Amino acid sequence: MNLNALWAYANPKKFIQATDRVLPWISILAIVSLVVGLVWGFFFTPEDYRQGSTVKIIYIHVPSALMAINAWLMMLVTSLVWIVRRHHVSALAARAAAPVGAVMTVIALATGAIWGQPMWGTWWAWDPRLTSFLILFLFYLGYMALWAAIEDGDTAADLTSILCLVGSVFALLSRYAVNFWNQGLHQGASLSLDKEENVADVFYYPLLVCIAGFVLLFIALVFLRTQTEIRARRTRALLARERMG
Amino acid sequence: MRAGGGFGLGLAFFLIVVTLVPFGVGPQSELLARIASGILWLGALLACLLSLDRILALDWEDGSLDLLATAPLPMEAIVSIKALAHWLTTGLPLVLFAPVFGLLLSLPEPGYMPLVLSLLLGTPALSVIGTFGAALTVGLKRGGLLLSLLVLPLYVPTLIFGAEMARRGVEGLDITTPLLMLAGITCGTIALLPFASAAVLKVNLR
Amino acid sequence: MMPELGKYAEAVLSSYGVSIALLLVLVWASLRRARRVKKQLEDIESKAKRDG
Question: What is the pTM of this model?
Fold first, then answer.
């Protein structure tokens, strides 16, 4: 496939047309995957011999955590595209993705904390992974707040994309700092499926379906929200032109 | 090159924070001794934060920033100088007066040198990172809260390693790792972040 | 039909509940704003067409 052909969708109108065509299908696929995956995982998997029924939380925690990170990565890529090629659709896509990523982060945090509760005895613990996600959430908030604070669209796009770049470096740095910071405490009781036990097939396949569902949901939401941003931008431009006579 | 009235204000704020802590957690010197290094780092961080918008806002408002942009100096140098000015008026005084505040919080004796050293190493990073945040919000009226929201998460690595270095100093442990990490962060931010800050200012000055 | 969740029932159910609720709110808010903005744009464009 000619990758250069993708640049055609940098045209706002073409983007809306193309996404209008696929959005219904992606949405349906997303819903189906989510329902199948979650029902399968919730009702039809056994309990983990150590974690009991809380292992079922992975069907939401793992996909949402993955999407929380991937949403930010997508924002990073689209921010770079904006900086280099100044395609407005790219900048607007980053803006559109941020709230979705933020919600994914909150879900990852909530499910992570709840999952840890039987292990730690409290509803929150400063486990390195949870803490890193909390910091990521703060980065999302700052990014969204900056977009909202600046009136001029192009300026906002420029500033938020630079923030995204710098933020990405610091987010990575924070991950290592937080691991260093909490290395002493929860030895071995970190929040993940145990690496030694290979995740049994019986847990694995429903998890894959759930991950697919979350990915499709993310794509559908970003397409929808980017369309909205494109339309909003055009509306502002038309209003401004009207005001100028 | 003006830096606003930051000098005395930053220190005064630091003093207020340090004074408030015992009211918040109780006056038992045992407890205070345990959390002193962390509180001092937090206080320094907040004091730096509060003087950030002064770095650029005054020059922005009266147009000197536009003038500076046309000067033969590259923008990267200008933002670095601004960061340096901020450090000289906020970070450095904090470093020098930290022992006094440590006294107020019952900081244990072995902790003083590591604390001062960690602040000396870390506050420059706070100024450089803060200048980036100030550049982002320079055009905004009442950008103070947004500035804090943007800058505080960026401060996390510096705070973690700085406070850890100070804490280990108090307990007599080896401070090499956090020291090196902290120094690395400071050097890295001083070397690289001005490029981002300069780009941001150029955007805002358009 | 309900699996034996045992003593973790509260944890598992609340995590599923909170997450699904958040996702539904996100989707609903996105759809609502999309509809509103689309209509707003159509109004302005038709007005611009009429006024020439």
Answer: 0.93
